[in-house]
Design brief:
The structure is a homodimer. The first copy, chain A, is α+β, with helices and mostly antiparallel strands. Helix content of chain A is about 30%, strand content about 25%. Chain A has 10 helices and 12 strands. In chain A, the strands form 3 sheets. Chain A has a 6-stranded mixed β-sheet with strand order 8-10-7-11-9-12, with helices on both faces. A 4-stranded mixed β-sheet of chain A has the order 3-6-4-5. A two-stranded antiparallel sheet of chain A has the order 1-2. The radius of gyration of chain A is 20 Å and the shape is globular. Chain A starts with 5 loop residues before the first helix and ends in an 18-residue tail after the last strand. The interface between A and B is large, with 77 and 77 residues. β2 of chain A pairs antiparallel with β3 of chain B.
């Protein structure tokens, strides 16, 4: 890679890619130009650091690329917006094989086939360890962005996706258990598949009142909704039970509710609805007056989710 | 910082900041929402890695913050667009003092007072070394973005800013010369001050045909214009001569033209004009038919500028 040089490498990993229609000017100038048809755009950014957010012995570069796009696209969709474009900065050691970078980029574009958008630009720099920074843009499609701060007492809390599966996969890998025994859990950790359509296919008049990506853990992310909406949320543990997860938790002697309630990186979606819960969403609780998140009416003790600094992570 | 936690630290460095009018929703939800009044936005991103793009013994955190914003804002302005917002991801060791992060953020906001916009969101993660990723957005204000690919033979090449000064400052620091002897050069390296107004105050009918930020070195960046416009550019060395730089080059036994022609990180602007060169711009050469960039009609030998990978950096 040191010999190929930054510009040649960027040319190599961007060549032959098809830009999304909203990318009015792609890579090659001082900046890209992106369409914002309704006069606004949604933006989110995440940084992934080697050995902190991914491990090269646990994930292929293709998986890492997919995950980097998925977690950012999920934040865009978590506003009710459609992913329109991404920019990606990559820091990597000068001895990184070109094939590695190519596989990383291929993984990103593979997830983009699910999420929509395209990689409209980026930066590539030398770094002692692999660092990936993704910024994602979304088009609100003329609708009001769906915030965290607008849940109301009486709303139903629902989830799309499978909370706990990424944490289960991480537990399998961490315990040194053969990944082949629990391929579904390991895959959920390596390559989360956010259920974008559950949000993006909602009709414009769906009774959704608040929405968030579930990335820090269900309790933590619902805690963000509860706090910013100044409401309480009570979850029904029987609705959260996931029998498919129990063989994994039994094998690892773990409590599956720890994974379901506090596991990070699921990139599921949690929402509140003031009316009928739409297809693709499972009701899991109620919004109440008050504050804090409870399970079956009681506070949950122990860790409440992933936090990048501090003991939670 | 490990004890304060990510959310508390983000709250600390964002509290009391005033968001730009174009930031419709700032930090605190899954994503921010930014206005794009003319239905498009410009976007650019850069990653800065400790000991590669900055050194903690040569630059204060405030300077590093300023520079991180300046280089991204310069890319936005290098499209003819006005900076409207930024998102910033920060990777840093868990023992980083909170005051350091605060000073970094203060430096960013100080440069934002020059460039416009505000920090609308970001991410903060643990990393073995300091990594700063900035993504900047711009409003084209209803004008066509000014590209690199639209210079035409007969145009005048002009520059706004002071090419070579950042490289001179870097040379002073690298040689271990007392920075107090050449404060202007050292300041130019530590805190580039892109002449945003030279671009943003151009009248809508200014005869500007192509534009770029000068960050890789004058020859390299004009090379990008020449290549993408399929033209040649010839520079006039007498117009490039900068007498104020000569005491520095004499003291360091260096050729000031090396700095002026190939020094990176000036964050000056280079443009081509099909008519009178506006105030704030100095003519330095001509656009010709052909290819490549020459000085006084001859190719310049030696390195042509900064490249992130390879031997140039």
């Amino acid at each position: 890679m040191a010999e190929l040089g930054e510009f040649a490498l960027i040319a190599k990993v961007t060549s032959g890619r098809t830009q999304a229609p909203g990318v009015l000017l792609g890579p090659g100038d001082d900046a890209a130009v992106i369409a914002a048809p309704d006069g606004r755009f949604v933006v989110t950014t995440d940084m992934l650091v080697q050995d902190r957010h991914f491990r090269l012995d646990w994930s292929s570069p293709h998986d890492i690329g997919r995950k980097a796009i998925a977690q950012n696209a999920a934040d865009v969709v978590g506003m009710g917006a459609t992913p329109s474009a991404f920019v990606v900065s990559l820091g990597c050691p000068s001895d990184t094989p070109v094939d590695f970078v190519q596989a990383l980029a291929d993984g990103m574009w593979a997830e983009i086939e699910r999420s929509g958008g395209s990689i409209a630009g980026g930066d590539m720099v030398r770094s002692p360890l692999l660092v990936i920074s993704v910024t994602a843009f979304g088009d609100p499609r003329g609708r009001a962005p769906v915030l965290r701060s607008t849940a109301r007492p009486g709303d139903v809390v629902a989830v799309a996706g499978r909370p706990g599966w990424s944490a289960a996969g991480l537990a399998v890998l961490s315990a040194g258990v053969d990944p082949e025994r629990f391929p579904e859990a390991v895959a959920a950790h390596r390559v989360p598949r956010p259920p974008y359509a559950a949000v993006l296919d909602l009709p414009a008049d769906a009774p959704i009142t608040a929405l968030t990506d579930v990335s820090d853990g269900l309790l933590a992310d619902l805690g963000h909704i509860a706090e910013s909406s100044a409401v309480a949320i009570d979850l029904d543990s029987s609705a959260l039970r996931d029998r498919a997860l129990e063989p994994v938790s039994t094998a690892l002697n773990a409590d599956p509710f720890d994974w379901i309630l506090t596991g990070g990186e699921d990139h599921a979606f949690a929402a509140t609805f003031s009316g009928a819960v739409p297809a693709g969403w499972a009701p899991i609780g109620r919004v109440l007056s008050g504050s804090a998140v409870t399970v079956d009416g009681a506070p949950r003790s122990g860790p409440t989710g992933w936090e990048s600094f501090g003991s939670g992570g």
